[in-house]
Records
---
Amino acid sequence: MLGVLVNTLAVLCGSGVGLLCRRTIPEKLTKAVMTTIGFATLILGISGALRGENALVMILSAVFGTIIGTLLDLDGRLDRLGALIGKKYGGKSGEASIAQGFVTASLLFCIGAMTIVGSLDSGLRGDHGMIYTKSLLDLISSCVLAATLGFGVLLSAAFVLVFQGSLVLLAGILAPVLSASAISEMTCVGSLMIIALGMNIIGAGKFKVTNILPSIVLAPLFTWIMGRITV
């Protein structure tokens, strides 16, 4: 868990610095940077979505994951939690919501081969090298994101700890399931969410991104099923 703890600490430190800088940044500049981050998020999402190997796995995972997330009202629950935290935090009107900052940062920090492979390496072989590299990237990214998206980015450290920590602790069980193909499909489905996030940030849509979250868990399952069918 050492690598995960370092990564979590990196997000906390970067977010803390970003929040301190946020106080000195003019609102006009914050909005301009937020738009830039939105477009950058779109590019990251598109590039990640192209890594998928089976379009049917992506579609099935996204559809059934969205059905589950919508029935559970994950987006609504997160928004309500963010609103409660926002009242205590005293967020300004017009700035990114707590939920938006949390979801955006959590997905950007945790979706991708570096997160999954690095966590498995950490859990199976005690090799934290990839996680340490990711921690440095997240330190910089969290600082920029927190300066524009606010307090929700700091809270994403909890998601990093739980998500990556689970991968490390369950590495022995998950390694056979998380094949290279499964990781590619997880990245692809997660990237769809990142594209939706980018569109939300630039104001091109109001997608309930959190409701799609179960799709990431379903991707390895459908990858395995499709592999059995095609054999």
---
Amino acid sequence: MKKIILFFGLMLAFSAGTYAQKFALIDMEYILKNISSYETANEQLDAMSKKWQAELDKSRQEIQNMYKNYQSESVYLSADQKKKREGQIVEKEKALQELNRKYFGPEGELFKKREALIKPIQDEIYNAVKEISNAKGYQMVVDRASATSVIFASPKIDISNEVLSRLGYSK
């Protein structure tokens, strides 16, 4: 009886060992650096971001100047004039916060522009990886750039260049 159980146990172990899953790696940073449209999109986003940041900095400087003037002149102002100036400063700060949210918020202009420019590139990469993994039978494809827990992986299973070739960027 023990021999039969041992035999079935060994058969189960061997059959589980023969069903090995296939894995592959990609390096998303490497792929994106080799796609010119991604670099162009990033440059456009950086330029827009710098322009908007300069606008916010200018507005922030105006608020600081208004506050400094208010502090230096507050001794000479009546209570109504103080309230009016304080209200102007508060309104300007609210407008600055709203402008910051409009440009850089979670649903802001930068987010929308990034979605419009970069999402199609990421979708192309995803589709290329999906096609390759379906063709070669990979069970899982891991991004080496974002997988911090990957300590070592053989370069033999890195399909980054194959993905670039599939996208039309031969390396």
